[in-house]
Structures are given as C-alpha cells and as structure tokens.
Amino acid sequence: ASPQQRANHSSAVLDELEELFIFGGWNGKERLNDIHILHTGTGAWTCPRIGGVLPHPRAGMTLTALRGR
C-alpha cells in the first residue's frame, strides 16, 4: 500500500536497487516514524517490518544513502 499523504518527510534513493525510501514526516495531525519503499522500476510500494527500537516520530530531518545502504 502506498504511504499516507505527508509533508516534511525525508527520502533517499538507492539507484542500484531502483528503490526510493520515504521516512517519517507530518500528516497534518502528528509526526510519523514509518518507512515506505517505492520500487522505481515497477511503481510498487512496500512497507517493511522493522525490528528493534523504532526512532521517535519526526519531521524535517534528513536521510542519506551511503554506499548502497
């Protein structure tokens, strides 16, 4: 499923995997801490299950892809 509408989210592209990552942001009511991945080759969205301690909801931050990660 595609992510809900948001502003002030962060995003990064991994060209070699054809993936666009979207994290967090503001949906008009609250800050978010979810992550969604768009496969740019197919246009399909995924929402991966994340284990461990999740970051606090946030908006207006950066996300950087480094060496394909």
Architecture overview:
The chain is an all-beta fold and about 70 residues long. It has no helices and 4 strands. The mean pLDDT is about 95.
Brief sketch in words of this structure:
The chain is mainly β and 69 residues long.
Low-confidence stretches: none
Structural category is mainly beta
Strand order of the largest sheet: 1-2-3-4
**Order of helix and strand elements from N to C terminus:** EEEE
Tell me the major beta sheet: 4 strands, antiparallel
Radius of gyration: 12 Å
- N- to C-terminal separation? 23 Å
Question: Approximately how much beta-strand content do the residues carry?
Answer: 35-45%
What does the overall shape look like?
Answer: globular
| Tally of DSSP β-strands | 4
Q: What is the topological layout?
A:
Layout: E1 10-14, E2 19-26, E3 31-39, E4 44-46
Antiparallel strand pairs: 1-2, 2-3, 3-4
Question: What structural keywords apply?
Answer:
69 residues; mainly beta; 4-stranded antiparallel beta sheet
